[in-house]
Amino acid sequence: MEQAKIVLIILSILGGISSSPPLREVSPEFENFEEIIPLYKLPDSLVPSYYNVELQPILDEGYGTRFTAPGKVSINVLCLFATNNITLHALTLNISESSVQVREIVGGSEIPIASFDVDAEKDFFIINLQNGLRAGAVYQIYIEFVAPVSREVLYGLYLSNYTADDGSTRYMAITDLEATDARRVFPCMDEPSKKAEFEISIIRLPKYSSLSNMDLLRTETEGPGIPQGWVKDMYKRTLKMSTYLFAVAVSDFEVEEAAPGHYTKPVKVWGPPPYMQAGAGKYSPDLTAKLMTALENYFRVPYTFPKMDKISVPHFGGGAMENWGLNTYRLNRLLIEDGIATESDKISTAITLSHELVHQWFGNLVTLKWWDDLWLNEGFASYYSNTVLIDVGLEDILPLDTLVSDAIQRAMYYDVTSATHPVHYNVTTPTEIRIMFDTITYSKGCAMVRMMEAILTEPVMRDAVTAFLTKFEYNNAQQDDLFQVIDDQATSLPGTDLTMKAVMDTWTLQSGFPVLYVSRTEGSGSITFRQAKFKTDLNNDDDPTPSSWDIPISLYLPTDVQVNTSAVLWLKKDAPIEFFSIANVQWFIINPRQTGYYRVNYNRASIRPIIEQLHTNHEAFDPQTRSALIDDNLNLAYAGYSDLTDALNLTMYLKNERHLVPWTTFVTNMAKPYRFLSRTAGLSAFKKYIVGLIKDTLTEINIDPQPNEPIGNATILRNKLFEWACNLDDSECIQYSKNKFAQWMTDPSNNTIIFPDLRPFVYCAAVANGGDAEWDFALAQYSAANREVTKTNLIRSLACSKSVFRLARFGVSMISSVITTLSNTLNKAYDITDIQRFIRDNEPALQPVNGTLQTAIGNIENNIKWSITLTATPDQPLTVTGVTEDDERDFYIIQLESEIAAGAEVSIQMEYVAQIPTSGAGLFYREYQTETGEVRRLAATQFESVEARRMFPCFDEPDLKAVFELTVIRKDNYTSLANTELVSSTPENLVTLIITHELAHQWFGNLVTLKWWKEVYLNEGLTTYSQYLGMEAVSPDLMGVEFAILDAFQYSMLYDASEYSHPLSNDVTTPDEIDGMFSTISYEKGASVIRMVDGFLTRETLRKGLQAYLKKMSFQGAQQEDLFESLEEAAVADNRLPAGLNMADIMSSWTLQSGFPLVRVQIANETAITVSQERFLNDGAEDPEGSSWFVPITIVTADNPTLENNIPQVWLEKDVSSKAVAHDVSKWIMINQNATEYVSIEAALNLTRYMEQETHFAVWSTFFEHFNNIYVKMASHPGYSLLRDYLVPKLDAALTAVGVEESPSHTGALAILRADLLDWACSLQSPLCFTYANQLLAQWVDNPNTSPILSVDARATLECAIVAAGGKPAFDFVFAKYQDSGSNTELKNEFLNALACTTEISVMNELLNKTLNTTSGIAPGDASSVLNSVSSGALGRTIILDFLSENLEDVITVIGNGGLQPITGVLGTLQNYFTTKAQLDKLEAFVAAHQERLTPINMAIRLVIQRIQDNISWMDTTGFDIWMWLWFSS
Ligand SMILES: [Zn+2]
């Protein structure tokens, strides 16, 4: 067997994305949520008052079962209501039932026990008593148990370790219990309101020390329960506290103590000796002591525990934990090591330290009553942890400003996602409680505290906080308790008669937040306010119960000396609108500093002056306000509330911005467009925009960090801008990174060369823009690193490589060299999370090697889980000394130090990972497709006859029978089946696996070697290309291979278009120059050029040529001429080249010069296009050398739509800059469809840029054909206005050229072109069309009997435009025309269609109502087509479903003559135009409301819905790209 080497992991690939299930199913009899809670909560009959807990964590071999903690607990409980059972929490504990005793404390009489029950779902351990307990009596419960010291999870009591300087592994045991994990350490009443006092004892070996919440009372070296050689630390009794704050640590850590004078009580920091000896423990102790003093002074409530210990833990699930008196931390959140730690680490550490310290009051002293109010802990801790930093002199790190970008705006971002929930949120089960530890609780909670303080003013809020802490100390509180204290303190809120409770209920009991509409009439002093819930898509009108809030409105004016954040006005939740008058000022700011948790949507008259002010002097607004303006305006524009152009225009002021926080907001908001643009033509414009903005600031703060520059603004800002500059290929940034990295490569042990904060970006840029040398160096440093952060930075930099083949090698190296050699350090769940995050962060760059990386994860999991334990009965020590494998016989042999005694029963525990192949042997998987085409997988077993060994180590022979117990862990969207009935189930995430293959190559380089390094591509390019072929050959269906090669292609083009590029064949002499040849050019461009040869010669011919080359040059040195010669022979033999071309000329044009051509495709006339070439350069600069190439061009057209092979129809020769190609331009055309040619094509959308000068009918009709789909789909999208802005000038220009007004020259094709242009221009409401339409109406009214429109082609369009542009009078006029038109059906229909063009809602309703009334003048026979016309219009689409819904029966009886035809007609029209989720929801709601009536057309409805779903996904992909393209092209 090969278990150790194999890797698995599947079950849940492509499991389909199901929306997360409701948190709990509420059965009808439990409508009221509150009634369910008791089912998961402990009964109220008993209240604990005191625990005595003793634990003996066994970390070493030879003292009983290693990695367990035998323990004892006594619990004193007061009986409130008579009961005959005791319910405790216990989970993963091995409880000795025979040890359990219950006795009454007074008198000591024992209460006999009847039986025990376990409720696994609720984690209950129930002691049933023979006689009941009496109300009012106090009892003591005594239990002995064994708790695990877990190696698998980072909660409960668990194991961590570090590597000592001598290379040995040292262990520690630590607790992490919030929210519901105390029950994993000792039986207890594990709810926050069940507070009690604790006496804790730890039994340990003398080589360790222990810590707990309290001071040490004494250490005993002998006594009952203390094994020989162990000692017992006994701790003083705590004050009343919740179980989740219980803490113990057993370690051999070293300590740093705070200097005296900063605080009245001892403060100590503990950490692993290698870190402490490097001085990493010096930063935190004094800072902690100062913070304690500052917090005591601020809250005016003393800290009542005797000391404060802070311990760092190498493996920690969260960032830190506030256990009373013993805070626990992730290493880099407590220890700051010179030369390793970054400035950001220092800032995060300061904030984390103070966060945990605030919890000593908010959380520890006053605890939430239940987890539904978790924000009372976390919101306050998040807010005051920042404000208190000012009091200890850390204002440089801008704690108040960064709150805006890092907490408030982050909360707003999260609060509109589907994962959001109200701040106060009902939760009951441990799984639900865990969900509460999210951005809403922390960041929105923080926003709530900050908003309350802004409303009350700081002194009033502080008084309320002191009162709250005093009133509820050692007790529990709910949010209403807090609001009550505030309302008692501040008898009224400034500016309103509302109470704080009334206000805050609107903010804490519902999710989301409002957008405040602010309108000021130009030049007037009156402002109006109204509110609506903010949505990420304005068109989403699916808000069944409109939310509203009590909104405090604060104001900042140019005349204000100081920002005042308390409200001058309130917009109450039930008030539709408020007015406010201000003096005549140039501008005004609503909600300065974003203290109110809402967005402000100014009308144009209000935002324009603000933008102007930002551009002239942005410092008129403080940084928090500037940040808020950026965040609001970008997000409002993204969601379609306001104009994106205005928002982008606003951001242009950033050229002058030097403050961190507005920049943070900006770059955060640029992530989305960047992600989408990274694969589109808009990227270069985007780069220009961003780099243009950041350049000045980056230069001013200096790209190179200066010694002793202040922490805060400059450093963190540089980090952010530097990262963007490098990602966007800014040459200065890349050059800086390459230089620094090169210096480091010459002096690897020097850790002062690269500034710690910049390391991730410098490494990344250097590896991305470097060659094998940089790569190999980074990999070597990674292997040698002994600090987590260094490893993380380096592993991430490896992923930055632009070479997918290097990445593929990376995956392979990871497994073979890194993972295997580092299995000692990379063996924790933490490592997996980190690597998984790194894979996620680097999608899609890592897509091609995803399988390899997943394999690496599997290996680490192996390392974590790999352990073999043998226990024998009777007790006999069995030590594993080694394992061997016998591949031939499938044996796995465990060697033992001593023999197993005959007659002993041995239990073997092994952890392993099995493979799930597709073949039907062992555990295997199969795929099937659902009705909707979604691929699902299932796993099953087939063991007969010798395949069980493939799934688990076993005695796999038929006569070795045994009894089996089987557990299957699955994702919750799967079910499992086994031989016997299900006992219980636990969900867990499993990782996916896609198998990839190592790529082999031995020919190019070894068999045939280079003559000299000038043509490295002959080795590397050919090898890279054959790797690609190998990948494809071995696994043709492997997702991502094609993608990988295209990516390689694009990356090399990116590089090749830059100034760093070099020719494939390049004269080099010095070692440095030779080194430079191992570049993306030699690898990927080399491969891409060979791939192009594959295209134009065909693979068969290329293979012939390569074989001849290998044969001819075996064991010799080759140069490129040798290759060309062999290729030429093959090309001639197979007749692959047109006359006059030869391989040497073609190839030399690609290998002797750098760069590649941009092929432009333009329409020459109706029967031809021109293709032209010029060198493509990244910055669009002109090519001084006028380079050209032999360019093969493949073309597919409507007439010839499939490409048999990639043989080019056209060659553009070197020195020929352009060439005409016959083509019927009314048909579509695609150039380089398979992207085999190493060229960049500018066609498609960019072609349309030239349309303004175009008056060819055929060209325009192609254009209309292309854009019709885009126009229809985008009609309901926020991008519509951009599309309109893009098209209207082109249409108007062409229309002006053709002639808007009718003229005799408009005949034939020109008449049709004019009609088409008018149709488009009028639909897009072009001013040119509307002016003309009004003019026509006036003529017509003057002379009603003669239509001024002669053109048959344009008549319908213009009649429609007349109604659209002319309002109600035009409607009435055309309606009269309709009635007069007698029996002329064609004319009647034309007028009816025109009537549906109205843009006024009241008129539209009038028209719709007329269709239902047989006496209105609209004939019943015409009504149906009116409905269809209305449905296809912009306004009609939004109201037609409401109309149908209200009048369904009338529509069916009057219009449909009893049938459903009118409904089918409308739905059939809507399916073309509905493109958003909101529209689909609306349609589905309509269908649901009339389900019974619509049954006959169910099938048609299903097709309509399917079509709309297709539209939605089109909008999410192509539609978004087009939107972005329009945005950055306009
Ligand atoms: Zn916290």
Automatic annotation (TrEMBL):
Coiled coil, from the record: none
Record carries keyword Membrane: yes
Ranges where the Aminopeptidase N-like N-terminal domain occurs: 47-245
Broad class of the protein's primary localization: membrane
Transition state stabilizer (site feature) positions: 442
Binding positions for Zn(2+) per the UniProt entry: 355, 359, 378
Compartment(s) where it occurs, according to its Swiss-Prot or TrEMBL record: Cell membrane; Membrane
UniProt-annotated catalytic positions: 356 (proton acceptor)
Cofactor: Zn(2+)
Comment on bound cofactor: Binds 1 zinc ion per subunit.
Residue span, ERAP1-like C-terminal domain: 587-809, 1237-1493
Molecular functions (GO terms): metalloaminopeptidase activity; peptide binding; zinc ion binding
Gene Ontology cellular component terms for the protein in this record: cytoplasm; extracellular space; plasma membrane
One BP term from GO: proteolysis
Domain Peptidase M1 membrane alanine aminopeptidase, residue spans: 284-507, 977-1150
UniProtKB keywords: Aminopeptidase, Glycoprotein, Hydrolase, Membrane, Metal-binding, Metalloprotease, Protease, Signal, Signal-anchor, Transmembrane, Transmembrane helix, Zinc
Entry membrane topology: Lipid-anchor; GPI-anchor; Single-pass type II membrane protein
Superkingdom: Eukaryota
Sequence similarity: Belongs to the peptidase M1 family.
Protein name in UniProt: Aminopeptidase N
